[in-house]
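agent> Task received from the user: take the single chain below, predict its 3D structure, and emit structure tokens. No templates, no multimer pairing.
agent> Plan: (1) validate residues, (2) run structure prediction, (3) serialize to tokens, (4) report one or two observations.
agent> Step 1 OK, no nonstandard residues flagged.
tool_call: predict_structure(input=
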Amino acid sequence: MIDAHIHLTDKRFDSDRDILLSQAQNAGVKDFFCVSTRPEEWLKTIVLSQKHTAIHPFIGTHPWYALRHDDVLFKKLLTNHPALGVGEIGLDSLKGEQTQESVFESQLIIAAELNRPCVIHCVKSFDKIAAILKKLKTKPTALLFHGFSGTLPQADFLSRFNAYFSFSGSVLKENKDKIRAVLAALPVDRLLAETDAPDMIPPEKYRHSDRNGRNIPANLPLIIQGISDIRGVDTLSLISLLRQNAERFLAGK
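)
tool_result: status=success, residues=253
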């Protein structure tokens, strides 16, 4: 299994990060897309990936922290570390810095120039993101819309830009009928699964207990079980397909 979106550098994991990673790997989670949200996390993410080969590092500036973005350092690190992806970047109409659109577009341009896949945060910002994608002269190799909350027509449009769609345990909550219907109908070759740990805590049925009240990496197999139930498919078959999708996304295919 591959966790398509996790914040392993979060300070809430500082006391037991290696233990939690081992627990997840023992449960079958073999790879992690570790994203960062601001320049202060970038080097920490790179160092962590050098310590754990299962970690695929991504660096980027989240819309909440757009004022902290450093384009020069961003491009330098990407150039010096060919395995780096870009993320978590995007737009957020509910919360975010005023410069978020220009920062988002700048990161997309650099990602396209260096042929890197991008992990996208999109909260009530589909139209703005669509407009930016349409005007880019060169597109990034692949886009991953994490914690996807859009519609099927939106997903169809984004697929023109080689987009994938990842779902966390939040889709398993009982009040998520609309997005569950989207999850059930999306093409299987566009799907990925994530924890978004330590946030996005799944319903009790789909999580292990944690004394610190966090979403933890070992919850991914339970989340995938819930996703397979929504789609009405065999869990083992879905796990195989999700891995293939994750590998294609990394390769920009």
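agent> Step 4: summary for the user.
The longest helix spans residues 235-251.
agent> Done.
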